[in-house]
Amino acid sequence: MVGIFLLFTMATRKTPTPEDQLKTLRSGRFNQRWQAAFELSNLLKDPHALEKNPQLPAELVKVLDASMAAPEEDPRVCRYLVLALGNTGSPQSVPALLKAGRATDQETRLYALGGLARIRAAESAPLFIAGLSDPDPSVRSVCAFGLGGLEGLEAGPQLHDLLKDSVPEVQWNAALALARHEDDSGKDILAQLLDRKYLDQFQGLQSEDKAELILNALRGIKYLKISEFDKKIEKLAQEDPDIRVRKAAKSWKGSDNS
User: Fold this and answer.
1) What is the 8-class DSSP label of residue 75?
2) Would residue 238 count as lying in a domain?
3) CB neighbours of residue 234 within 10 Å
4) Is position 194 within any domain?
5) What CATH number corresponds to the domain at position 59?
6) 163-198 burial, b for 16+ CB within 10 Å, e for fewer?
7) How far is 223 from 256, CA to CA, in rounded Å?
8) What sign results for the dihedral spanned by CA atoms 190, 196, 202, 206?
9) What is the domain count for the chain?
10) Is pLDDT of 6 > 90?
11) What three-state secondary structure class fits 63?
12) Per-residue confidence at 11, pLDDT binned at 50, 70, 90?
């Protein structure tokens, strides 16, 4: 009987929508609220999530403003709300993310900078440039990445300095950012990213991470329109264990930066 009841409950239970999670954020109990913010951040990874409710980013901004102003608020609520706003990809999120990008809570700040980088908001440039000299390597890394996605490049010298950063991830993102602006100063770093033996040195990198780094390096080299790494790319096309990398390498052309 218990088994039948559980099966019936699972079959009839409605999957919470973004609107349901927003309602919980407004009126839920302590633990329910941060969990709702977390679930909402995952739901909003779906590029079609805003089609039924395009005003959701504006509603999230209101909840975030109230949460950041509440002195006893669980910091997880603000963190996941900022992550959710970044995942919307909506320009409506930019002012709130800019504010959160200056927060004292480091996780909130990083989520905000990451969201601004994904949205490619031009207003983020001063924040990204300031972050290039931050003592936290995660901030330097995400700000370098963010600058790579913006039109124009106001931080060339600072990005050049980051090519010699003590943290490899910061170097990688600086090289990729420069490449997107057709600056080949970091091309040797991009060449390293095409080498799985090099990437295997970093135990924290998962297979998915390595594949994404290789794909990003390929994109960067396309912007540079150079052919000196053709042999490395041909090897990837034939031998790389990830089908996406093999496919990208097979279709690669040094003169094509699309």
Assistant:
1) H
2) no
3) 13
4) no
5) 1.25.10.10
6) bebeebbbbbbbbbbbbbbebbebbebbbbbbebee
7) 8
8) positive
9) 1
10) no
11) helix
12) very low
